[in-house]
Amino acid sequence: AKPNVLSKDPDVNMLHVFVLGDKQPVEYGIKKLKYMPYHHQHQYFFLIGPPLLIPVFFTIQIFQTMFSQRNWVDLAWAMTFYLRFFCCYYPFFGFFGSIALISFVRFLESHWFVW
């Protein structure tokens, strides 16, 4: 296990949006390295971080890992979750309502996870 090591731990490898540490965000922000104004990330973290962390970033990362490691059983179980979810909620909310519901639930889950 390599917790909180930037190149090893996928949970903290979010360089396109956030940079961890005390010195690196200031250096990246002032030198305009990469993509964001990292020296101001303390101001925009809760606007961008929780809504993107679990609903978008982790979901994409989980599916990429399953594909790259050719873990077809986990992929099948993940797909059955989404299939069961849409079978249950599509009759009540329709397609876009179901997408909105799962996005909202993941959004709340992400805020809970970050706090």
Commentary on this structure:
The chain folds into two domains: 36 residues, no CATH class; 74 residues, no CATH class. Helix 2 packs antiparallel against helix 3. Helices cover 68% and strands 0% of the residues. It is mainly α. The protein is built from three helices and no strands. This is Delta-6 fatty acyl desaturase. It is a multi-pass membrane protein. Keywords: Membrane, Oxidoreductase, Transmembrane, Transmembrane helix.
Describe how the helices and strands are arranged.
Elements: H1 24-30, H2 41-68, H3 72-114
Helix pairs in contact: 2-3
Short key terms for the protein model shown above:
115 residues, mainly alpha, 2 domains, transmembrane helix, membrane, transmembrane
- The number of distinct structural domains comes to 2
Distance between the termini: 23 Å
- The percentage of residues in β strands lies in under 5%
> Biggest sheet: strands, sense, closure?
none
Protein name: Delta-6 fatty acyl desaturase
Keywords: Membrane, Oxidoreductase, Transmembrane, Transmembrane helix
Transmembrane segments: 44-63, 83-108
Subcellular location: Membrane
